[in-house]
Amino acid sequence: MKVLVFGMLVEDTGNDVVELVLPPDTETLRRELIYKFPSLQNRQFFIAVNQQKADHNIMLGPDDEIALIPPFAGG
Amino acid sequence: MSTETVKAKKNFFVEGPVNPSLIADSIAKHSTKKNIGAHDVFLGQVREDMIDGKPVQAIEYSAYKEMAEKELERIREDIIMKYNLTCAHVLHSIGIVKTGEISLYVLVSSPHRQASFDACQEMVNLIKKEVPIFGKEILEDGSFAWKENKD
After folding, report:
1. A67 touches B at CB < 8 Å
2. With an 8 Å Cβ cutoff, are A7 and B62 in contact?
3. Residues from chain B contacting residue A50 (CB–CB below 8 Å)
4. Which residues contact A35 (CB under 8 A, 6 or more apart)?
5. How confident is residue B10, by pLDDT bands cut at 50, 70 and 90?
6. N or C: fewer beta carbons within 10 Å in chain B?
7. B111-135, pLDDT tens digit by residue?
8. Surface-to-core class of residue B39, CB atoms within 10 Å of its CB (0-12 exposed, 13-18 middle, 19+ buried)
9. Which of residues 74-113 of B touch A (CB under 8 A)?
10. CA distance A32 to chain B (A)
11. ipTM of this predicted complex?
12. How confident is the model at residue B2 (pLDDT cuts 50, 70, 90)?
């Protein structure tokens, strides 16, 4: 499964796309990402599933578009 | 090539700064909409902030484009409905914008002025708060700092 990575978080993951084995849900994904990229621990970010903010734990499927999103800076 | 007959997908992003002549053209296009009595414009300009004693030279903008486009379209439609606007337009930069250059253009148009004032302010605030656009401030010595909008 591909995870899209944006902005400052690319410094933590080293790449704007991260390949992972599909975790069951967004909470597990968050834990696995922090385990794999420990500096994410100190970052503020949210997970988006199909371009919508996951504000609670969401089940993940193989066709979902998943992204890691840092604070916004538009304007 | 471009005709106004088909409702094309809105283009919210421009590469590099928003050119002032593009803004002038965009305003001029409204002369045919005779029910408009007021426009309100907001322009965001890249400011020369000091970070650790080093002046910002430019911001490099990036975005989660597909999500940002969806959010911008949702915000635009909500604001048009809420304030009964005639129309509303947004352009945001992607890529490098130097200090002193324009990175955001918002234009709202309505029959009367109060709706345009209120709508413009709310729209700019929502764009800053809800659209996944990211900014890297590039400093004089080539180092950089990630920008974060405050609430």
Report:
1. yes
2. yes
3. none
4. none
5. confident
6. N
7. 999 999 999 999 999 999 999 999 9
8. middle
9. 92, 103-104
10. 22
11. 0.95
12. very low
